[in-house]
Amino acid sequence: MSLLMFGSLLTTGTALVSANESKPGMNSSKLLNVAHRGASGHAPEHTIPSYRLGEEMKGDYIEVDLQMTKDGKLIAMHDETVDRTTNGTGLVKDYTLEQIKTLDAGSWFNEKYPEKADPAYEGIQVPTLEEIIQTFGTGARYYIETKSPDVYPGMEKELLRILNKYNLTGVNERSSKVLIQSFSKESLLKMHNLNPNLPLIQLISYKEPASISEDELQELSEYAVGVGMSASKIDKTYVQNVRNAGLLIHPYTVNDKKEMKRLLDWGVTGMFTNYPDRLNDVLHGK
C-alpha cells in the first residue's frame, strides 16, 4: 500500500454519492470533463484565454490552482514560483499582486509551442480568483485546488470569503457549482469546518500502483465526496473499490483518447484533461 498523500477528486451527475447523509450530495451519472488549467494543451495554462477555450470546448469546470501573494491575494498559478509560466523569477509569496500583474504569463507558451503560438498571448496577465469569477460569472462551475496551503496561512478563509462574496456557497449551491480539492487533508478539513456544505475532493499521490483499503475509503467518506490521482497509477479494481464506497473518482491528466475510453470503461466519473475537445469527442462517441 502506497497511499502517500491525500489529493483531488472530481464529480459527476445523478445520484447521491456520499455515504454520510449530512455531507453535500454530488451527482454521479454525468461524466465530468474537467479542463485542466483551462484548455492548457491549446493556450497558456491558468490564463483567461485558456479558461475561455476550456468552456468553448465543452469543459464542465474551470480548474483553478491557487497560490497566494505577499499581500494575501489569491491568484491562479500551479507552481509556487513564477519561473515556469511567466518572465519573472522567484516565489509567488514574495510578490505583491501589483508586482505579479507586471509579469508576462503568455509569451512562454508561444516560445515552447510555436505551432500553437498566438500574438494575443503575449503580455497577458496572471488572473486573480476574483477576476476569473468576475469574467465567467456565477453560472460557471469552478474546480479549485488549494496548492501548498502550509505555505499560505489563511488561504482557506480567504477562499471562502471570495466564494461567499459571489454567492457560490451554501445550501442552494451544494450540488456542484464549486468543488474544492487538495493534496492536503488538513486544508480540506479546514474548509469543511468553515463551511460543511462545500463538496471536497481528496487528491492522493502514489509512487507505486495504487491500492486503497476499506478503512481508508471510510475515512475519506467522512469529509470528501470523491478522490483524484494520477491515471497512470490506477486499474479497474481500484476504480470499482472507490465507486463501491460511494465516492467519485476523477483521475488526472488524461490526454489520449484511448486512455480516456479505457478509464470510462472502468467506471471513472470524470477526468482532467489538457484537451477538453478530445474528451468531449469521446463522450459523444467520436
Explain this structure:
It is a single chain. The chain has 286 residues and is α/β, with parallel strands linked by helices. The chain has one domain (3-283): Alpha-Beta Barrel (TIM Barrel), CATH 3.20.20.190. It has 10 helices and 10 strands. Strands 1, 2, 3, 4, 5, 6, 7, 8, 9 and 10 form a 10-stranded mixed beta sheet that branches. Strand 8 (226-228), helix 8 (236-244) and strand 9 form a beta-alpha-beta unit. The chain is globular. It starts with a strand and ends with a helix. Mean pLDDT is 90; it is low at 1-22.
CATH topology type: TIM Barrel
CATH superfamily heading: Phosphatidylinositol (PI) phosphodiesterase
Structure summary, number of beta strands: 10
Kindly provide the radius of gyration, computed on alpha-carbon positions and rounded to a whole number of angstroms: 18 Å
Helix count from the secondary structure assignment: 10
The CATH architecture category equals: Alpha-Beta Barrel
Give the overall form. Answer: globular
Q: What is the H/E string? A: EEHEEHHHEHEHEHEHEHEH
Q: Sketch the major β-sheet.
A: 10 strands, mixed
What proportion strand?
15-25%
Low-confidence regions: 1-22
Q: What count of domains describes the coordinates? A: 1
CATH class equals: Alpha Beta
Report the structural category: alpha/beta
N-end to C-end Cα span: 37 Å
Mean pLDDT: 90
Helix content: 25-40%
